[in-house]
Amino acid sequence: MRESGQLPLPFVHRPEFVDDLLQAASNENALAWSSRPQDWPGGRLAIWGAEGCGKTHLLHLWAGRIGARYRCGAALRAEMPATGLAIDDADAVPDAAVLLHTLNAAAEARLPVLLAARQPPGRWPIELPDLASRLRATMAVEIGPAEDTLLQALFARLLSERQIAVSACVQDWIRLRLPRTPAALREAAARLDHAGLVAGRAITRALAAAVLGQLADRDC
């Protein structure tokens, strides 16, 4: 039996994106457009929104559904898979010429490209004129701020993924004391997971209060 206070093994939690993205009014438009690549002007669609709003999850689901390849912008290379490409953090591609080549090759082959970033393509700091022109012509759909019902369901899912048992009333108590963003919920879930492992006990309101205190101290 593990003693209370024993340090947990440093396992890294990696989401597998196997579940459908939780649906709400804030992401309804993005989900609808991502399911219709045949209707994307020029074969391109950009999904944009705040950190943690579900862009990466949506890209993985879309890529898995049509057999496209998923790439982070920072790791993009000159390539064009046979069925399409999903580019996350597309505004972070280090070589603008590579992104331009990728978009041109996709258009020539009539293959869809799904892009994601925190800002719409028209606001990306692009100095290459041809690329800037193509990005301005790309349809952009926002994932808006999450509703309370979505945040509630998301927090429950995040805790379940980590196999953390937290009562519904304690979940509500925690959530109402956090910023109303998916990113804040993800960090809270990770810290609760670690705190529960270190303490060797279930997540109580007292333990949750200590975690919230740590988050507050960090933000000071």
- H and E string: HEHEEHEHEHHHH
Query: What sort of overall outline do the alpha carbons produce when their principal axes are compared?
Result: elongated
Report the radius of gyration as a whole number of Å: 20 Å
Compute the separation of the termini in Å: 38 Å
Question: Which percent bin holds the helix content?
Answer: 40-55%
What does this protein structure show overall?
- There is one protein chain.
- Helix 5 runs parallel beside helix 7 (182-199).
- The protein is 45% helix and 10% strand.
- It has 220 residues and is α/β, with parallel strands linked by helices.
- The longest helix is centred in the C-terminal third of the chain and has 18 residues, at 182-199.
- Strands 2-3-4-1-5 form a five-stranded parallel beta sheet, with helices on both faces.
- It is elongated and about 60 Å long.
- Helix 3 links the parallel strand 3 and strand 4 (113-117).
- It is built from eight helices and five strands; from the N terminus they run αβαββαβαβαααα.
